[in-house]
Amino acid sequence: MVPYITRHIPTYDLLGEENLLKIEHAADTILGEIGIEFHDDPETVQLFRQAGAQVSVVTENAWNIKFEPGMIREILKTAPPHFTQHARNPAKSVKIGGNAMVFSPSYGSPFIIDMNQGRRYATLADFENLIKLAQASPWLHHSGGTICEPTDIPVNKRHLDMIYAHMRYSDRAFLGSITAPERAADSIEMCRILFGTDFVSEHCVVMGNFNSTSPLIWDGNSTRGIRNYAEAGQGSILLPFLLGGAVSPVTMPGAVAQSLAESMAGCALTQLVRPGAPAILASFLSSTSLRSGSPSFGTPEPALGSLIMGQLARRLNLPLRCAGNFSTSKLADAQAMTQGMMSMMSAVQCGANFIMHSAGFLDSLLSMSYEKFMLDTDLCAALHTYLKGFEVDDDSLGLDALREGGPGKHMFGTAHTLAHYQTAYWESSLNDDQPYESWHEQGQEDAMQRANHRWKTTLQDYQAPSLDESTDEALKEFINRRKATMDDTWY
Amino acid sequence: MVPYITRHIPTYDLLGEENLLKIEHAADTILGEIGIEFHDDPETVQLFRQAGAQVSVVTENAWNIKFEPGMIREILKTAPPHFTQHARNPAKSVKIGGNAMVFSPSYGSPFIIDMNQGRRYATLADFENLIKLAQASPWLHHSGGTICEPTDIPVNKRHLDMIYAHMRYSDRAFLGSITAPERAADSIEMCRILFGTDFVSEHCVVMGNFNSTSPLIWDGNSTRGIRNYAEAGQGSILLPFLLGGAVSPVTMPGAVAQSLAESMAGCALTQLVRPGAPAILASFLSSTSLRSGSPSFGTPEPALGSLIMGQLARRLNLPLRCAGNFSTSKLADAQAMTQGMMSMMSAVQCGANFIMHSAGFLDSLLSMSYEKFMLDTDLCAALHTYLKGFEVDDDSLGLDALREGGPGKHMFGTAHTLAHYQTAYWESSLNDDQPYESWHEQGQEDAMQRANHRWKTTLQDYQAPSLDESTDEALKEFINRRKATMDDTWY
């Protein structure tokens, strides 16, 4: 069990220098010629104006900002190439950037899907269950954020219960709220209770995942949240969610250029607020199904686009959030994993540092699936081995095994086999590798059925990490006090 | 529809020069110090002796042959880096080697699995069905060989019916029989009827897939078959099937070195028989499940091993057969595709030229699955797009779409979107990308169920390619004559 993965294999680089320059040039053209609009946040506009960007008024609450080529890159020079997000259990703090990779659960689904009840709105009980399942998996590294939407809790209060669940049922790092600036502020305040005010002022303990409003808008809700996190020295993920042909060019190189431009502008804001604040370049690429008109996921074009994003992030020397285990399927079937693998392999091969949506994603992100969650964490386990690569040395070349046996001799009993067989191969904890006959006698279950049993037994066996009682009380007191200041709102 | 894929994206190279040299050195050590045993084929031994190899007698019918470092590489210099295997429909001839990639169905399963009948022994009717399904898919390029074992036909006669089915129900290239030298000869003889004797003497029209008897043995059944194919100028695939810890070192770098050594020795034999004969370096890597003691497939170590094999084949300047869509699952579920993707992505990313087992593989190769066959061919479709990569140019960067729309404007109606939306994204023909509600109303089918419908309708719609009547008669006459010379044997 490791707190995060250290990638020991090379990245899969798709494009050569010339084509990367073309994409970077296109991003610069977007930033310099078309510009990014900023809405409802004059302070952000003022920060960019002071930095030398060219601001023009679009409406009373909207400004178009253009950046001379190279200006954003210059601003980004203060952003850390890697940083640590601290967990309340120090052994689980994660490095983000460089060769480090962090797997984090899926984020943002309003629905839950499981084999027993089908699809239904997610509740706080589901939220807590999924935090527990994530905590129980040695193959995730992060507790995530809105692992599902607890729709039974008022919209303006649920962030408090969500943050509490991360703090109480997990001892890993997690994401704070970003749906409104005051919720971002609450997230950071609760971290001050958990970690201590002094610690928080000096360390990154929480991150927000902020979406741009593509194409080419950062709205005030996001930018004010970004400023909150950056002022507090906390981390931001700056994410354009691009549905190709709808909010980005329908051709992937254009979507990648736009993704780079939008995310760079968001990252730059963090540096203007507080140079050195942790910022993560981010990209979420998708395609569109002609037949259904719906977004599609796990297709080859976004997988290749992610490989390019990896190259671009390294050239910028910024950590990257990219891709994940995406699917349009409505259950944890063959389609779900074909799409999920297409997408997830590109995430790890592109060298992404923070891989959101590593587990549970179904139904085009509308649903979090208990069964797929378990299958995906098993894949995450395999990817730990994949990313380790091989040491090529006398021991791993194992010529002694061949010498001891020789032509035609099985190697079960050689010294080399005996020394290595227990660690030589990764083994799934969910797959059925048995002969057909054994599988048949044992009830012919498919992977989804095994995952169904597994999440139930995992919840039964779950043990909460200890939490200091006075801290727990202080968190609850804060939550009650904040809730008492607000009437419930449901949208 | 293309006769084969031309790979336009880079390969995924795992190891640097130093580690590649270590593996090559280990292979040379195997060949030079431990040696390869050759059984029951004095002519092959004589060919190697004449070439300067060091032969020592092991038993009356077994010889150990050692090769000085560099000797095999020298012999292999006459092997073509790429060649064409001709199909009876010239538009479907395949290039093998270089940047060409050929997807071929799974090979060798004695059982059939389908959703309706579960697992049962395969028959000639299944064999014909699967040839038809392969022929009907635009995403495979080759008809394969023993697509399943027609167990209702006597062992000594079934090769005749299998070759006939390939010739009659497909117009693509195919693999001939290798189970006995006289069956290899029959395969080539039937090709002479189909293509004409003169054409066959000048062109590669059939290939045999020959297995070594790992560790480090080539038996006479294989080597005599290899000699038959090579003498006729036909192609050979020289394949070690390595179950790690059983017949190869349990550590992957050692298995790769052994795979290289065994396959190179097989390739060298083809060149001694007929310099310039088409030969394909090959590798089939697997792992072992500790829990069940069974072979396991679709695990990360063999996936990485395949990436290394790709690098080694390019350094040898030989075409490569490697990996495929492997699984231990007993049905076309999430496990099947997670494992299959892990393995298949490495096949395409390592630059393999002939990808056997591209469709239908289940149950550790014991079973061919109708449903998985359909799901796999849909993945093959996606991989056509993946391997195409992107042109990065003004058109694909699509800045005009952003200029026409601008910040906050959807791009559905831009000239760029309208010009590209029909071709911008690959679309699955089997996945369900619809919203949950539509999927739910339409019966909540999973991918396996959709695949079940699809193989049945595909068989209904199948149309046989035309075949000259006199050729057809001549083939049948040959088969009847050959069958009449033999009593049935069943093992």
Written description of the protein model:
- 2 copies of one chain form a homodimer.
- Chain A is built from 18 helices and 20 strands.
- In chain A, strands 10, 11, 13, 14, 15, 16 and 17 form a 7-stranded mixed β-sheet that branches.
- In chain A, strand 15 and strand 16 form a beta hairpin.
- Chain A is globular and about 80 Å long.
- The two termini of chain A are 41 Å apart.
- At the A-B interface, helix 1, helix 9, helix 10, helix 11 and helix 12 of A face helix 1, helix 9, helix 10, helix 11 and helix 12 of B.
Kindly list the characteristics that best describe this protein.
homodimer; seven-stranded mixed beta sheet; alpha/beta; globular; 491 residues
Q: What is this entry, summarized?
A:
By secondary structure, the first copy, chain A, is an alpha/beta fold.
Assembly state: homodimer
Number of strands of chain A: 20
Mean pLDDT of chain A: 97
Question: Radius of gyration of chain A from the CA trace?
Answer: 23 Å
Give the largest chain-chain interface (CB within 8 Å). Answer: A-B, 126 and 126 residues
Spans of chain A of at least 5 consecutive residues whose pLDDT stays below 50 are none
- Roughly how much helix do the residues of chain A carry, as a percent range? 40-55%
- Straight-line N-to-C gap of chain A: 41 Å
The largest sheet of chain A is: 7 strands, mixed
The shape of chain A is globular
